[in-house]
Amino acid sequence: PAFVTAWxxxxxxxxxxxxxxxxxxxxxxxxxxxxxxxxxxxxxxEDVSVVAFIVLSIVLxxxxxxxxxxxxxxxxxx
Length: 78
Hints:
Helices cover about 85% and strands about 0% of the residues. By secondary structure, it is mostly helical.
């Protein structure tokens, strides 16, 4: 139950941020979330999946790099 509750909370927060992005993006320069929403409304679910996978991959690589550099810093401080 806690996992489902946390997931619902994250979805609600993400949707609130998406509405702000939709209202504030400059014409011709949408953010990735606005681009994905546009693709989704056009029915291009495969394209949305590809963009989401690319974004997820980039985030995971950056987290792995951060984790690797953080461990080196912690080991040198000992």
